[in-house]
Amino acid sequence: MTAQLQPAPELPMVREQYVAMVGREDPRRTGHVSLTTAPLEAVFVGTHELDDPGHARPVLGPALEVAAQKAKQRLAVHRGDSPRGRPPAHRPWPTASLLRMEYRAVLFDLGGVVLGSPLHAIAGYERERGIPAGFVNRVVLSSGSSGAWSRLERGELSLQEFHTAFDAECAAAGQAIDARTLMEKVQMASEPRPLMLEAIRRIRAQGLSTGAITNNWVSDGEGTHELRPNFDAFVESCVTGVRKPDPRIYRIACEGLGIDPGQAVFLDDIGANLKPARALGMTTIKVDDPVVALRELGSVLELELLA
Predict the structure, then answer these.
(1) Concatenated DSSP letters for the chain?
(2) CA-CA distances (angstroms) from residue 30 to 50, 109, 158?
(3) What is the pLDDT of residue 183?
(4) Homologous superfamily of 105-116+191-301 in CATH?
(5) Which of 77, 85, 208, 222 would suit a FRET pair with 166, their CA atoms being 20 to 30 Å apart?
């Protein structure tokens, strides 16, 4: 007797959801269906073909179509010349692992990831001047999109104009700073990290694209020319007029590479910049320690990125 699909007791609507998604029950399957497996059942059904991955898109996200096409190619190999709907006896049924994401690009923040951290430079400046730790960051956040820092990174202020405006914002917040000296320290900290450059080289050698998404300012951009050959897309906030964490800057990078967000991994040292990328479908990695981050990236891509 062929078992019928039964809803898991704690999820009584799963069976109805599954049937609605695939248009019919699959008599091959036994046991319970969960909210996790239901969308996969909507892909691997009946004839063992990908009937309509669009029905599962709301659950699995925009990356499904890409992975589904790859899975369909693999399924063609699994089916071989055996009767329709039945795989060759010497091959196992394909599983959900066939839908593992196929990445096409890795996107990098610059400062704090590919380059030394501006956050460390700012913290050092605060220590030297006896300024409370985190003061500069609090001023940047409290002033929001209309503040001097945000306007600088959108290309709306020259560096000289920023110095005057940011000095005034910090004074209004209770501390006197010298924005010119602060930004010089940030610039001096922006040295390339050899480990990251080598990882980028290895990634590109495997046929993957690389991109940079950086919040910077006009004169700062002049110092990035030597980095540009390492990237297939180089997206600067001061050029686009859009800065992280605005979702538009991530879309600009993906469009420049001709990929969907779900086909990319994105690395940044600021959690707030990772959230919108993740919401768009990207796999994200927070960079606190470059070595740890590269190990994680290597695991995601199944590549050896460290010498």
Answers:
(1) -PPPPEE-TT-TTHHHHHHHHHSS--TT--SEE-TTTHHHHTTEETTTEE--GGGTHHHH-TTHHHHHHHHHHHHHHHHTTSPTT---TTSPPP-GGGG-----EEEE-TBTTTB--HHHHHHHHHHHHTPPTTHHHHHHHHHGGGSHHHHHHTTSS-HHHHHHHHHHHHHHTT----HHHHHHHHHHT--B-HHHHHHHHHHHHTT-EEEEEE---HHHHGGGGGGGGG-SEEEEHHHHS--TT-HHHHHHHHHHHT--GGGEEEEES-HHHHHHHHHHT-EEEE-SSHHHHHHHHHHHHT-----
(2) 20, 47, 66
(3) 96
(4) HAD superfamily/HAD-like (3.40.50.1000)
(5) 222
What's the pTM?
0.68
Q: What is the pLDDT of residue 101?
A: 61
CATH architecture assigned to 118-188: Orthogonal Bundle (1.10)
pLDDT for res 83 = 39
Domain with CATH 3.40.50.1000 in the chain: 105-116+191-301
pLDDT at residue 220, rounded to an integer: 54
pLDDT at 222: 59
Q: What pLDDT shows up at residue 78? A: 38
Residue 219 is predicted with a pLDDT of 76
- Write down the pLDDT at residue 206: 97
